[in-house]
């Protein structure tokens, strides 16, 4: 698969040379919906290749790789898009075009972890990720929640972030896991607001209990908080975990 500007077939050949079979099996077990094809390239090698791509015509690469069937190519797309240096308007347009093709947690979270918003870009990015967090599309929603957790947990954005988490509702497993992970992280920065979501029983049983589990497993949460968190667990949800 290639377009006139960028040869993705040649890129796949390079990736195949970097791959190893045991890691491919590990990837398939860890990311069961990784896509039509996985190769088994380890993340440090992909990150190094992303840096190389960013030093070249990264726009041509992004245009050619957006819907590529190979998992590692789409993961590279996420890394390159997140790391691209361009105006925030262009970057958000590129993210908006890519999100419909994000269909697994690893590519979603890889995009989030690669975003390094500049101070002047925060307002525009915040509005974009708030809209994503309100989406009914599972991985667009997860992207929004993880971005809010990662980049907007402090003032002046904390109130909007916590409002988005309060409003969370979605049947998708990966959206619910993203919300639980996000709340467990936000608890470290916005304890009272995060705790209120659990105390007010705003979420479905699975997401509510999963957030409590992640909080109780975290070494960053004070031990004295953990009995209180356990008491907030919904017993009726045990059968669904």
What does this protein structure show overall?
It is a single chain. The protein is mainly alpha-helical and 241 residues long. It has 2 domains: 116 residues, no CATH class; 122 residues, no CATH class. It contains 14 helices and no strands. The chain is globular, with a radius of gyration of 19 Å. The protein starts with 7 loop residues before the first helix and ends in a 10-residue tail after the last helix. The mean pLDDT is 93.
Percentage beta strand: under 5%
What order do the helices and strands follow?
Answer: HHHHHHHHHHHHHH
Shape, per Cα inertia axes: globular
Largest sheet: none
Tell me the count of domains.
2
User: Treating each run of at least 4 consecutive H or I residues as one helix, how many helices?
Assistant: 14
Number of strands: 0
Q: Whole-Å distance between the termini? A: 40 Å
Label the structural class.
mainly alpha
Q: What are the low-pLDDT stretches, counting only 5+ consecutive residues below 50?
A: none
């Amino acid at each position: 698969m290639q377009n006139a500007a960028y040869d993705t077939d040649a890129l796949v050949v390079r990736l195949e040379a970097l791959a190893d079979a045991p890691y491919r099996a590990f990837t398939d077990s860890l990311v069961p919906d990784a896509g039509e094809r996985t190769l088994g390239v380890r993340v440090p090698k992909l990150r190094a290749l992303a840096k190389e791509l960013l030093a070249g015509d990264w726009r041509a690469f992004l245009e050619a790789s957006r819907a590529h069937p190979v998992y590692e190519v789409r993961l590279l797309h996420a890394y390159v898009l997140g790391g691209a240096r361009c105006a925030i308007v262009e970057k958000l347009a590129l993210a908006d075009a890519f999100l419909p093709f994000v269909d697994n947690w690893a590519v979603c979270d890889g995009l989030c972890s690669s975003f390094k918003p500049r101070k002047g870009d925060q307002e525009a990015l915040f509005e974009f990720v708030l809209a994503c967090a309100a989406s009914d599309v599972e991985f667009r929603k997860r992207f929004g929640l993880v971005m809010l957790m990662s980049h907007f947990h402090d003032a002046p954005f904390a109130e909007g972030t916590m409002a988005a988490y309060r409003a969370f509702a979605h049947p998708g497993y990966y959206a619910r896991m993203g919300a639980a992970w996000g709340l467990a992280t936000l608890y470290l920065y916005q304890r009272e607001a995060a705790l209120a979501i659990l105390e007010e029983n705003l979420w479905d049983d699975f997401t509510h209990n999963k957030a409590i589990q992640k909080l109780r497993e975290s070494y960053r949460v004070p031990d004295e908080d953990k009995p209180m968190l356990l008491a907030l667990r919904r017993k009726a949800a045990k059968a669904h975990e």
